Amino acid sequence: MFKLNRAVKQLVVKSVLTSLIAITSIQAILFYKTLSFVFLKEDILKKSTTNAVNPFLEDQKSWLVGTSDDKMLFIVIDTLGYYLAKPNLSILSQIQEKEPNNTIYLKAKTDSLTVTGPRLLSLMTGTNPTIMDLIQNVEHSEEIKIDNIPSKMKAANKTIYFIGDDTWVKLFPTSFTYFTDMQSFNIFSNGREDEHMINQINKWLDKENNNEDPVDMIISHFLGMDHIIHSTNDIHSSNLAQEYDLFNKFIEDLINNQPNRTIVICSDHGVSLRASHGGDSQEETETFFFVYRKKGFAKNQPITQQLMADIPNYPINNLLSRVQCNQSDKKQQCGQFEGMLQVDVAINLSNILGLSIPYSSLGMVWPIFNNQYKEGDTEEESKFKDTVARNTYTALKQQISYVMENQVYKDKIGEKNIFNFLSQEKVIDELYKEFLKDNTVQKLKILFEKCFDLNEYRQMSILRIQMMKPRKQIKLI
């Protein structure tokens, strides 16, 4: 029998190992390329401006009609899912009950990448993160170059003070006028930094009350709750009770002492019953979104109620298939709008702030966030309807423009769906022209619901491309 000597054996083994390594490397490269193709969005770096995409408007100066020029305090409480916020941040429900017209308190559904980086991307741009955004989160995040709220604030010569999770500074390194950042992975801080942050925020607010260097927007991202849960591996840790007390007191003071600042409080993601996050459980993907403004909102007024009556609440366990209310077996999910998607946050923040929406936003403009109108005043009611129609229609037109400029989406959606998409856009154009003729609630409702349908269709098509899973398409009536 032929035998190999030791040197030849070593050479053969080395050659085999080298080949395996080469093959593995090629596979890794191909796998990465596949990931990039499947999961990466084609980032369109175009910025939305105040130039209208609405061909039916004579006034092309500002196509997204903002609801308020008030200053804003935007608070993110890391890891605080809705199921924890509802019973433990009791001050939010108390404010809603006491001042229902000044308060909006909703569930906000995220997708399954429930870690901070991708969720901040969603909150500030209105896009759905991909698996590559998750990888970047592990690598401590890269600058967000697509259109986003902090960059739009800066472009509008608005000032921002940021304090909290240093992920923000990495994502938006040139957008903040002032900032105080804190390490996001120092999990053994036991919430001590939250009290320090509150003191710092109060100092800035006190300066503003004395007309000393006021800023247009304060953004704060609290990490204490996340750190406590990770360090104790317990969602019922006794240290959390102190956190809840701290936030309840802080929020109550804000409501009482900041009449001229819109207050927004939300979470980036939730946490599972096993004290972890990153997955797709209801506890991880169901967050909250709270907005308070002394001037009030139009959410409880007759026109808004008529518009929202047939819009479904999102299905709690399925981001991708918000059902339509004309299905008889789903009627119970309609008529009481309790939840939106996290991708809706950016577009509605932009509306409140009077900014044009981030160019790649997937979200829907909800009329509940608009200014109140004087009921019975024909002129004010007409203006309100015009604002809702204009915002809804032109926002969707921009979103369609974004999809059509994104070759990755166009290639994967396919010609048939592109044709369907564009044909439905023509229907929207006609409905908007019909509304402009007579300005009735009925015509506005038809336009609003059709825009909602097309928004859902577009979202689902894009998500299907990113995740490469077959999805049931919404039938466009």
Automatic annotation (TrEMBL):
The family database entries (SUPFAM superfamilies) matched by this protein are listed as: Alkaline phosphatase-like
Signal peptide, first to last residue:
none
Q: Does the keyword Membrane apply?
A: yes
Q: Which protein, by its recorded name, is this?
A: Type I phosphodiesterase/nucleotide pyrophosphatase
> Keyword annotations for this protein?
Membrane, Transmembrane, Transmembrane helix
Q: Which GO terms describe its biological process?
A: GPI anchor biosynthetic process
* One term of GO molecular function: mannose-ethanolamine phosphotransferase activity
Q: Name one Pfam family in it.
A: Phosphodiest
| Gene Ontology CC annotations of this record | endoplasmic reticulum membrane
Q: Where are the transmembrane segments?
A: 12-32
Q: What is the top-level taxon of the source organism?
A: Eukaryota
- Keyword Transmembrane belongs to the record: yes
InterPro entries per UniProt = Alkaline_phosphatase_core_sf, Phosphodiest/P_Trfase, PIGO/GPI13
